Amino acid sequence: MHMQLDENAGASSEAATVAWSTVAAFASAVDADLDKWLAARYRVGLTEFRALTFLRDVSAKELRVSELAQRLGLNQSSATRLVSRLEAKGFAYRDVCEDDGRGVYAVLGEGGEGLLREVREPFEERVRDVLGDVSAHFPHLSAGALDGALEDVRSFLEG
């Protein structure tokens, strides 16, 4: 019986790996599509766009660069370079924490707010279009396999 449990655990682990790999490949393909679309139309990358939305969505319109890095899944150095790019494009600026002078904040600027207003609806339409017709946008990905993988991931999350 112990051997059968180990075999089932191995099969379950492999199923989780396959399911997650399928979902990750899909997410990467969607992100690449959105990044290319944003760059072609608005001269901004997806990570820059996400950073601006994170700044917009907090009440003070600012986040410590370290917190922004965490939200974006970047290391501190990459986030610092990202904020520099946003600053060079006039979308955000840096501010130093008045309390200790060491904390550096990224602050949403007027240019960033204007870009977000301009991009919001077309971007939402693009996301709906891409998610609504997976086969047309990503013929190399099977919509059926993706559906199954999403169900598998959901079942693993629910325990």
Characterise the protein shown here.
With 159 residues, the protein is mainly alpha-helical. It has a single domain, classed as Arc Repressor Mutant, subunit A (Orthogonal Bundle), CATH 1.10.10.10. Helix content is 73%, strand content 8%. The protein is built from 7 helices and 3 strands; from the N terminus they run H-H-E-H-H-E-E-H-H-H. Strands 1-3-2 form a 3-stranded antiparallel sheet. Helix 3 (65-72) crosses helix 4. The chain is globular and about 50 Å long. The two termini are 22 Å apart. This is Transcriptional regulator, MarR-family.
The main β sheet shows up as: 3 strands, antiparallel
Instruction: Give the H and E element order.
Output: HHEHHEEHHH
- At the fold tier of CATH, the topology name is Arc Repressor Mutant, subunit A
Apparent shape: globular
Query: At the fourth CATH level, what is the homologous superfamily?
Result: Winged helix-like DNA-binding domain superfamily/Winged helix DNA-binding domain
Summarize model confidence as the mean pLDDT: 90
* Number of E-state strands: 3
Q: What's the end-to-end separation, in Å? A: 22 Å
Number of helices: 7
Q: For the CA atoms, what is the radius of gyration?
A: 20 Å
Strand portion: 5-15%
Question: How many structural domains does the protein architecture include?
Answer: 1
- Structural class call reads mainly alpha
Q: Which sequence of strands runs across the widest sheet?
A: 1-3-2
